[in-house]
Write a structure and sequence with these properties.
heterodimer; A: 110 residues; mainly alpha; B: 226 residues; alpha/beta; Spore Coat Polysaccharide Biosynthesis Protein SpsA, Chain A; 9 helices; 7 strands; globular
């Protein structure tokens, strides 16, 4: 019971945080909705653990908790990969900008 | 000497003690030198200008690959027909520039790569030799280009090659990337023997042998994600 309440509270806080970030124009609408749906789903799963057993049966994994662990791990790896690729892309853009600035600076000095 | 315009491109990071003498050693041979100061914390830029080179400074530190790219863009904009990459730390011998450039002037190659292993009696330290052999094998497996020395910073490119090759790797992996690009665009390449002087200064400044593994990792990663 304690863990359910704790996770629900965390979910509410994070979802509210997403909404305030959205209001400050720091978060686009799509990711905000995505995060809210994600935390609602977590809350539902915490209160109805039997649901996870059904997911587990569907995926032919022994226990509900295990199924959730596997799925989370896959999601985290995927997100990690996305962030990494994005980082690389940002770095290349910064390089492009910095090199262009260097060349403009030199030309204006001549 | 010839109607072609050759430009020397030197990427320099914290090289204020050496860059002046390196520029001075090259100037009598090639008049056009551009030094790209990769946001050094010392006076590399001033030292390079004082010695008579064109000098550009990156507004942030980007790495050698990016510095070479900037230098090449500058040289191409100033009408370079041949571009030579030359190290800032005094490892290379300016008297050998003509050998590196020659195959391009004669029309036999688009890109010429210096090789320290083609030189008789080269004094490459044992560990360095082993790591470089690994690099050669790695490059061959990844790019299908078989060279005797894949990580030599002394190379010459024709205008065509300089315009064609894309360097995305900001840091040291650009050496492997250039070879990859040679294979991808089917550029004509050749190797010429060059001397690498391993002074205490250049060994301290250059790549640690351990770094090779990281470079290999970067190359693999870019292969997987591109």
């Amino acid at each position: 019971m304690v863990i359910q309440i704790l996770i629900t509270l965390i979910a509410i806080v994070v979802a509210l945080k997403a909404i305030t970030q959205f209001r400050r124009h720091l978060l686009a609408p799509a990711p905000m909705i995505g995060w809210i749906i994600f935390w609602i789903a977590i809350t539902i799963l915490v209160w109805l653990p039997d649901l996870t057993d059904r997911i587990a049966a569907l995926l032919q994994v022994g226990r509900g908790a295990d199924a959730i662990m596997y799925l989370s791990l896959i999601a985290i790896f995927y997100l990690f990969f996305r962030v990494f690729v994005r980082l690389e892309k940002t770095e290349q853009l910064v390089t492009l900008l910095a090199r262009a600035i260097a060349l403009i600076d030199t030309d204006s000095k001549r | 000497m010839h109607p072609h315009t050759t430009w020397i491109v030197i990427a320099a990071y914290n090289e204020e003690t050496m860059i002046g003498s390196v520029v001075a050693s090259v100037l009598p041979i090639v008049a056009h030198i551009v030094v790209v100061d990769d946001h050094s914390r010392d006076n590399t830029l001033v030292a390079a200008r004082a010695a008579g080179a064109h000098a550009i400074r990156h507004p942030i530190n980007l790495g050698q690959g990016a510095a070479l790219r900037t230098g090449m863009d500058y040289a191409l904009a100033h009408g370079a027909d041949v571009i030579v990459h030359f190290d800032a730390d005094g490892q290379h011998n300016s008297a050998e520039i003509e050998y590196v450039v020659r195959p391009i002037l004669e029309g036999g190659a688009d890109i010429v790569l210096g090789s320290r292993f083609l030189k008789e009696g080269s004094n490459v330290p044992a560990l360095r030799r082993a790591v470089l052999q690994g690099g050669i094998l790695f490059t061959w497996l990844l790019s299908g280009v078989k060279l005797t020395d894949t990580h030599n910073g002394f190379r010459a490119l024709s205008r065509h090659a300089a315009q064609t090759i894309r360097i995305h790797q900001n840091r040291m992996a650009h050496a492997s990337e250039i070879i990859d690009e040679i294979a991808r665009h089917g550029l004509r390449y050749t190797e010429v023997p060059v001397t690498i002087t391993y002074s205490d200064y250049s060994m301290a400044r250059g790549q640690s042998s351990l770094n090779a593994a990281r470079i290999a990792g970067q190359m693999l990663w870019s292969k997987l994600t591109s």
